[in-house]
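Check the record.
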Amino acid sequence: MIKPLNTETWDAYEKLIIKHHGVWGGCWCLSFHDKPKERERSYEANRIYKKSLVENNSTHAALVFHDEECIGWCQYGQPAELPNIYHKKEVEAKNPLPDYRITCIFVDRDYRNQGISSLALNGALDLIKQNGGGIVESYPQDTQGKTYTSSFLYNSTRQIFERAGFEYIDTKGKNHCIMRIKL
């Protein structure tokens, strides 16, 4: 089941992040958000800041649930909400700004390799459609057939995006690519 990240789903989302020690070094899925320069950068400060973004409807994600347990998510948002992408100048020089970006897909370690990334991605696309759709851009890992541990794939793989109907646009940095879909 897919549910949007909001104050009603926060506790389940928070529980998953705590289980994974804040995810990627205590990030709390904030890396792509704009953050005030004076903001403290610690595990607890990140938790509080992420919760404030949820309370202000300034962060979006499609959460995947198994019963009442959140087991994964796909973060999405408009470029103003998620401005901190890697290789930003390169990406924005090549393409007009999209209506939405997908920046992060995370799956509970106990549920990996079971198709949860695809469920999360498709859930995000459905939520974006409900908000009017538009051009959606993402930057998955282009594994080129090589095997990677899933813990390093912060935005999944090109293959998952291709199966969801995204079109390959160009390379991005060393191992990622730019992909788009119009909803």
About this structure: The chain has a mean pLDDT of 89. Residues 116-130 form the longest helix (15 residues). The chain is about 30% helix and 25% strand.
